[in-house]
Amino acid sequence: MAKGRWGIWTKKKQGDGRLAGLGSGMWVWIAAALWATLWTGMAGAQERWSCDLEGEVLTFGFDRGDLFPGIEGEPPRRVLGDAEFRRGIFRPEPFVMPDGTVGFHEDAGAVGQRMLVIAPDGAARYSDTGPGETLTGRCVRMGS
Fold first, then answer.
1. Which residues, 6+ apart, have CB-to-CB distance to 127 below 8 Å?
2. Is the full-model pTM beyond 0.70?
3. pLDDT score, position 56
């Protein structure tokens, strides 16, 4: 046994093809770290939606990875998405239901509340209690 280049104990034979200092067990850890990095990247993918609501365009995005349940004993984390509608940008709270329904909710206190609900088939309903407005239309997922 010899201490390798990075301080890892390994049995290295002359010309065995392994990188200096990395025993065969170390490759398992490297593969696991790489998989964890890729998995985190996939879970945390930004999801984007584009909606046509009676001729007006609303875009909405959020990071699904942020929606995972919090850690027990810690306070809940407020998750925000981003939305753009009528040349205004706002930061609503996204939601994902078990049946595939997605959307957002924003409570602006005395000004009112905005809510978008997108059914699994793409049918959408947007409501804004401030001006008392309800719009319907269709949304499509733009990818991740």
1. 113, 114, 115, 133, 134, 135
2. no
3. 96
